[in-house]
Write a structure and sequence with these properties.
Elements (H helix, E strand, L loop, with lengths): L14 H16 L2 E2 L4 E3 L4 E3 L4 E2 L4 E3 L6 E3 L4 E2 L4 E3 L5 E3 L4 E2 L4 E3 L4 E3 L4 E2 L4 E3 L1 E3 L13 E3 L2 E3 L4 E2 L4 E2 L4 E2 L4 E2 L4 E2 L7 E4 L4 E5 L6
């Protein structure tokens, strides 16, 4: 095998059969493991690289937009939710998405290789319009903007990354931080809103 992602054709069969077929094909052809009890919506629009793991309780929804793409050795933890939505989600090789993390691709989400997404982290590429005080927020529509997370980024537990943010290579987002603006490469940020507190590889003064 050359490690390239393996697409699966769309199915007209019931969803359970489609999921079983998806799991079997990728286990035999690419060594990937899709646990029973994972929830795959439109598996024919999920591209799965070799040696990936999708754990029990994970939800992957590729029913809208451009779908969901995983490179090789991607791991999706228990209870994690990946929503391709209108913009799509692409996750690079060796990246681990931990338990109960949420990734929404309404505006498009691209995550690089060898990243760590902590438990309960939230990456959401859209927001609600709210400027008109005369109308309920829920009727004002949405704002969409892509999120790009470069290689070797560690996103701590319960961290939130909002629409339009680019996180540079090697950055660290502290647990519970809310990231509202771009993060420079190899920078450590924390807080609400997140601010730079250190740089990797530099000694404290």
């Amino acid at each position: 095998m050359d490690g390239s992602p393996l697409p699966v054709r769309s199915f007209s069969a019931p969803s359970v059969l489609a999921e079983l077929w998806f799991s079997l094909v990728h286990r035999l052809r690419g060594g990937s493991r899709v646990s029973p009890g994972s929830d795959l919506k439109q598996p024919g629009r999920i591209t799965l690289g070799a040696r990936c793991k999708i754990h029990r309780g994970a939800q992957i929804d590729a029913s809208v937009g451009t779908g969901v793409q995983f490179a090789e050795r991607v791991s999706i933890g228990r209870g994690a939710m990946i929503q391709g939505s209108r913009g799509g989600v692409a996750i690079g090789a060796g990246t681990e998405v931990n338990n109960y993390a949420v990734i929404n691709g309404a505006g498009g989400v691209t995550i690089g290789a060898d990243c760590l997404v902590g438990p309960h982290a939230c990456i959401v590429s859209y927001g609600h319009e709210y400027r008109d005080r005369e109308r309920p927020i829920r009727t004002q529509g949405y704002r969409y903007a892509p999120i790009v997370i470069e290689d070797d980024v560690w996103i701590g537990a319960h961290a939130v990354v909002l629409a339009g943010v680019r996180v540079g290579r090697g950055a660290v987002l502290g647990a519970g931080s809310v990231v509202t603006r771009d993060v420079e490469p190899y920078t450590v940020v924390a807080g609400v809103p997140a601010r730079a507190i250190a740089r990797r590889g530099e000694r404290a003064a």
